[in-house]
Design a protein that fits this description.
Elements lengths: L5 H13 L2 H7 L7 H10 L1 H18 L3 H13 L20 H7 E11 L6 E11 L2 H11 L15 H14 L2
Antiparallel strand pairs: 1-2
Helix pairs in contact: 1-2, 1-4, 2-3, 5-7
């Protein structure tokens, strides 16, 4: 990172915060007006790209979070059993009794509504309704699929064709558009 200017080094540091090139460019001191084009251009700079990769590798080493950790975590989340949240009578267990994997992000929200019978001071508490909102498990499976190269979730497919096939396709397209 020593071959970079101070502004470019600042861009690298800022980019690592949220991986958003435009915002990183602005925070690093580049013009807001041109940041939407300047940020992606900076990412194409070989020195900046190398500095970003080196910084990411150092961060992974410091945090002990790497591709293996991520894939293991996604796999654990994908197979977590919702039945683990309920007791033998079908009631929702207290949160502190849930398995750790559920408490660390599989639940995106909990709604609790108290139910009362009667009005005023004489009303009696008769129960509560709890709704557990789950986070998106399909997204986890897509991430796993992309990571392990099952190619089930490829966003872009590249096909190589011979020059003669490409020429034939071009001629056919020209005939159709006449």
């Amino acid at each position: 990172m020593s071959d970079l200017t101070a502004k470019q080094r600042a861009f690298v540091r800022e980019y690592l915060i949220d991986l958003n090139a435009t915002k990183a460019a602005i925070r690093a001191g580049y013009s807001e007006k041109t940041a939407h084009s300047q940020g992606p251009r900076l990412l194409e700079n070989v020195g900046i790209a190398a500095s970003i990769e080196k910084a990411k590798a150092q961060r992974s080493e410091r945090t002990q979070i790497d591709a293996d950790w991520l894939l293991k975590r996604l796999a654990d989340e994908a197979v977590a059993d919702i039945a683990d949240l309920y007791d033998e009578n079908g009631g929702l267990k207290p949160v502190d009794q849930w398995p750790l994997i559920w408490r660390q992000g599989l639940v995106s929200g909990i709604e609790v509504e108290e139910l009362f019978d009667g009005r005023g001071e004489d009303r009696e508490h008769i129960g509560r309704v709890r709704k557990v909102k789950l986070s998106d498990r399909i997204k986890r499976l897509e991430l796993i699929g992309k990571h392990v190269d099952v190619q089930a979730f490829r966003e872009k497919v590249e096909i190589e064709i011979s020059e003669s096939v490409a020429a034939r396709l071009a001629r056919a397209k020209a005939r159709v558009s006449r």
